[in-house]
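Researcher: Hi, I'm a grad student and pretty new to this. My advisor asked me to get structures for two proteins we've been looking at. I'm not sure of the right format, so I'll just paste the first sequence and hope you can take it from there.
Model: That works fine. Here's the first sequence with its structure tokens right after it:
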Amino acid sequence: MSVVQDPSAPGPGRPRDPTLDARILEQVLALLASRGYAGLTLDELAARSGVAKTTILRRWPSKAAVAAAGVERLALQSVDVPDSGTLRGDLHALLHGAAETFARGSGQFVPRLLREAGHHPEINDLLFTVIHTRRQAYRRVLALAIARGELSPTVDQELLIDLLIGPIWTRLLITRDPITRGYVDSVVDATLIAFDVPSGTAS
């Protein structure tokens, strides 16, 4: 009996095709956006990516694994750590970027994932990837501010980050109120006032 080979699968010793990986991860993000995690299937992902299902499973062992890889790719692409020269300017850039990504951009499905997490515990790993990656960007910005002398080295960095991102996620997940540029600016300004950052550091 002849065996039909999957033309998209790597042969012996052949390196993985990064363009194929990128295509699959692009499609998994599109499906998460349109179907949510519960509606994501490997069969549809394979069809939309133009590969066999076995090709996906050779790269990622499960639906959760390929979804996590897609979300990690999004998280890394959507965080550009700014260096405007001031803490206020950097935080404005980061928080505006977060609002654009999760409220209006490629990460709009992330709030939906949060709402699905109660029924699908494996989603928590996906969400940790997003949250951890973005918090790392805030920590790097705060480290720059400490090095410039704008912020005390003893500041509670995790609390400061919580106060910045908490109001945004409250609107994304609970109130569904609009996240305007003015609102984001107010969140940054109120947080910096709470931590005694002088207004003279405005961007």
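Researcher: Oh nice, that was easy. Here's the second one.
Model: And its structure:
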Amino acid sequence: MKNAIKKRLYKIKNRLYIEAKYLAHYGFGIGQSYKYSVDPVRKNITIVPTEHDGTRRVAKTTQKTGKTVPVIDIKTSDIQSFFEGHSEFEVEIKRGSIVFSVKQPQASVISLEEAREQKTYKVSVQELAKVSNFEQMTIFDLFKGDGRGELKKKAIGMLSLFSGCGSLDKGFKDEGYDIRFANDRYEKKALKDYHIETYKQNIGDHIIMRDVLDFQASDIPQVDFVTAGIPCVKFSALNTKDNFRDGDSPFHPMVEQTINIIKWSNARSFLIENVANFITVKGGAILKRFKERLSEFNIVSSVIDATSLGSPQKRRRSFILGMKDAIPSITLPNLTEVNTVRDAFYGTAGVNGQDLYFKPTEKTLSRMIHVPQGGNIQSVPVELRAKKKRFNNYCQRLKWDDFAPTITHVQDDVFIHPEEHRYLSVRETARLFSLPDDFTFTGSLTSIFEMLKNAVDYRVSRFLAKTIKEQLNAIKLP
């Protein structure tokens, strides 16, 4: 991918406005001189950087996250006329150029293969006017509620179960939910209580450490919304021992207790997160159980690949969404950006956690050096391979201009940097889950990567938080 580097969304208000942290990487850093031209024949606008000290320079703006990023803002009459005179256009960013071209209406789903050649968005001006950079998340203004519900007047009270390090709750917190109660248990092996401490420093002190099976109705607060990331090891296809799918009983104790807690909380809505086959295992027995015991809820389910929301990691997770007073929807936006491993790792130098990674043993290093980008253990000479780990998901080297594979434990399954002969760092791994750089971790390296392997992608959690809030706010309450 030599020319096209990054596809971005833009916010247009009768002017050309581009705000993105990646602009510097494409040749449009803060202070950079640039020029633009409007071609009425080809119906496009082209922006290019210039070497001379021109009158136009890339400015800077501070986002809600506190990050300072480059911004290009052109308000001239010819630019205004261009956007007022056409209904649809295509935006393309390459190294050293940004091009707006008039296009006819067409589908907006863009494949990775297409994006490698030309990363673009195709969308009407009216929709694009509502879209900005990911940090502001205003893309989700495309999900409208009518705003008549009482919930809109106050923060949505939330209860979180199996909360882990808080990667799911982070998205809901940043969307303004009032997380009143969170819980996870002590893990004797790798995690201990490090996930609880990590949650506290990133989300809040409302988390308690207790086995969810010990809760009774009197322990549970009344809230509007419940989330539960039920531990997935007994549902995962990667687990070949003691898997729920192989047992005789259609009931799982943690699923049953989660349903109990939803009832005890008197919630108006709930969201269950798990591995992709959670909703299909045993012929859909778990989904059926939710519908049976929570018949007062309208329930839908969906499997979301994080890449469909702009994540650099292929990570498919299932979600069950229930609402009492409305028909819920998990509808992914047609607009999305493609982020690769290269995009995710850009600017990690000096960021907290970038210097934290496992040092490979001599044996592991001897395997790493044989693995090309996108390769795995199959590229390693037979005599150097691990006897019990011969599958393609072991000893994987990431590829710069592609999505990352599904990340499990970085050390256990050996995930390798695209170029360097080393494991992925804490920050690189967190970036693959789209977690912001101010999300920090407490604990040993083993425990941190244990947290990350169980994490929910931040783009996914933020999307769900936004669209659920929009739907709850639209409900007419008695």
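Researcher: Is there anything I should tell my advisor about the second?
Model: You could mention this: The first strand starts at residue 16 and ends at 19.
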